[in-house]
Write a structure and sequence with these properties.
By secondary structure, the chain is an alpha/beta fold. It has helices spanning 17-25, 38-52, 55-60, 74-84, 97-108, 113-116, 127-141, 161-167, 180-190, 201-219, 233-238, 240-251, 290-293, 295-298, 301-318, 335-346, 358-373, 381-388, 391-398, and strands at 5-10, 30-34, 149-153, 172-177, 228-232, 266-267, 272-273.
Length: 411
């Protein structure tokens, strides 16, 4: 029987996953691989939906569909509910093994090249088997079997947390936020390096909103009591020791000073010192507060207005300070924001999860804002779910003096 317990972390792409994964792995009691196998989550979703035999979901979200934000229609909400009620006791479709292995190796090699040569050992009858095998590969390949916690961070994967929590009752979880204005600014910086990483802004912001909604939902769920740590890359950069100590406390390990020394971080793919992953620096050394707010000097004004128009209430819910009037749902859309979203809608990107119709997509955003400003709360549950995913989120966003999920974020 393994000594270690599983640790699972997630955040959106460009949210500092590599930094905190290396930070935690510098603790002798922890090992966190960064982004080893996104395809595992996509494959799990596909087999889960296939075996659920929900025709609406299968028609809306085929196997080649991107991971979803779930906003906009009943089929997507049905899909979200299937994810929220799932376990990992889903049969893996063995006929998909070759393509699953091929994609897993190709994607995993981007940040976990040392692991992918062992992916022939991933194969299992159920997804519980495959996730367990991945944890075993990480523990063995990185000589971490004797550590207290072994696991990984993976982007986009938050909607799989309930299944992971039910199937690994001794696991604990991290949700890593980052200011979406900084993320989009970072994405635009990546565009010249790797155009395939650039996504549609509306889709990205909706995924960020989904993370805010699910963080609130899971924090209230007894399944995650004492098992969930919510933090932010912005806190890692600006309140470094305090933020890292908070993670250590959740996982019951001692804080060690080398966790803050980036020169002690190992790139396990090369065996050399980790050089960071920044859109603006060739080599990232140290943990610097200035990186948390540099987006303010670079971001285009219309882009800033658009982001706050799309997620201003959720920014405040997490604890971020908003900078424009467009964060207020009572402020009507400007010509510049409307034009930006129309152009964003028609611009090619590597992936997108929107509704593929500007009338529907922009209408959804306006309805969301109107629902927040109504004198009385809306009693149409499906409308609320299509626009906020959960009624609890809608009710929280309508509260004038609501508590924030995080405190101490940079202003």
């Amino acid at each position: 029987m393994s000594k270690y317990s599983p640790i699972f972390g997630t955040g959106l792409a460009r949210s500092g996953g590599a930094l905190y994964s290396n930070c935690l792995s510098a603790n002798p009691e922890m090992m966190v691989a960064c982004c080893p196998n996104l395809e595992l989550f996509r494959s799990f979703r596909n087999d889960l939906f296939l075996q659920a035999k929900n025709k609406n979901v299968l028609a809306e979200i085929p196997e080649n569909a991107p991971l979803q934000d779930y906003y906009g229609n009943e089929a997507r909400i049905e899909a979200l509910d299937i994810m929220m009620d799932a376990t990992l006791n889903v049969t893996f479709t063995q006929s998909n093994w070759e393509i699953f292995h091929e994609i897993s190796v190709a994607r995993g090699a981007l940040e976990a090249e040392d692991l992918v040569k062992h992916y022939n050992k991933l194969k299992g009858n159920t997804y519980k088997d495959i996730f367990s095998n991945l944890l075993g590969i990480i523990a063995t390949s990185r000589n971490s079997s004797d550590r207290k916690w072994v696991g990984f961070h993976e982007a986009w994967a938050l909607d799989a947390y309930p299944a992971l929590a039910r199937s690994f009752p001794n696991a604990k979880f991290i949700i890593m936020f980052r200011d979406p204005r900084a993320i989009v600014n970072s994405m635009l910086g990546v565009k010249n390096i790797d155009p395939l990483q650039v996504v549609q802004v509306m889709s990205y912001i909706r995924h960020w909103r989904k993370y805010a909604a699910l963080a609130l939902k899971l924090k209230q769920d007894p399944l995650f009591k004492g098992r969930l740590h919510i933090t932010a890359h912005d806190l890692i950069l600006t309140r470094t020791e305090e933020a890292v100590r908070g993670i250590c406390e959740t996982f019951g390990v001692d804080f060690v000073q080398q966790m803050l020394d980036t020169e002690s971080y190992i790139d396990f793919s090369t065996g050399q010192t980790w050089v960071g992953n920044s859109s603006f620096e060739k080599k990232t050394t140290g943990i610097k507060a200035s990186r948390a707010l540099r987006w303010r000097e670079k971001i285009d004004k219309t882009l800033l207005n658009t982001i706050e128009y799309l997620c201003g209430p959720e920014l405040n819910l997490i604890g971020y300070t908003t900078l424009t009037n467009f964060a207020n749902p009572r402020t009507i859309i400007s010509d510049d924001i409307f034009k930006y979203m129309i152009e964003d809608h028609s611009t090619y990107t590597n992936w997108r999860s929107d509704l593929h119709d500007p009338l529907t997509d922009l209408g959804l955003e306006q309805v969301r804002r109107s629902l927040l400003t109504m004198s009385k709360p809306c009693d149409d549950d499906m409308l609320i779910r299509k626009t906020f995913l959960f009624r609890e989120v809608y009710e929280a966003l309508r509260q004038k003096n609501r508590a924030t999920l995080l405190t101490g974020l940079p202003e």
